[in-house]
Write a structure and sequence with these properties.
Blueprint (H helix, E strand, L loop, with lengths): L14 H7 L4 H15 L4 E4 L6 E7 L2 E9 L2 E6 L3 H8 L11 H5 L11
Antiparallel strand pairs: 1-2, 2-3, 3-4
């Protein structure tokens, strides 16, 4: 199963097509795009990750990927690249459920989803 719905090599989606694909999660998409643009101060580009993953909108700084956002039908998958120190901290976390994996998870409270993250 692909992370995103755009899986044809050589045919990157436009921003408008990506936003339309996420459907009911368009508000989450807009907030994520605004937050990432402000945080990373980088212009994202679509990058193809193969037919198993599809096209992702990737935010890069100094040539390094910081965030990949895969638009899907009625969903958004975000791949956040953590620095080594933050990755080690995340590995020690007691939380074993992703807090922001889908629009549905965003609508529910973290506690109701079984997440102990602050």
């Amino acid at each position: 199963m692909a992370y995103g719905c755009f899986t044809v090599r050589g045919v990157p989606p436009t921003m408008e097509e990506a936003r339309a694909a996420v459907g009911g999660c368009a508000g989450l998409w807009d907030r994520l795009m605004a937050c990432a643009a402000e945080r990373y101060r980088a212009r994202p580009n679509f990058t193809f990750y193969g037919r198993n993953h599809g096209w992702a909108l990737v935010f890069r700084k100094a040539g390094k990927a910081l965030l990949g956002v895969f638009p899907d039908r009625e969903a958004v998958t975000a791949l956040v690249v953590l620095p080594v120190a933050e990755a080690a901290l995340a590995a020690r976390s007691t939380c074993r459920r992703p807090c922001w994996t889908s629009c549905a998870a965003r609508r529910s409270s973290r506690t109701a989803a079984g997440c102990s993250c602050p």
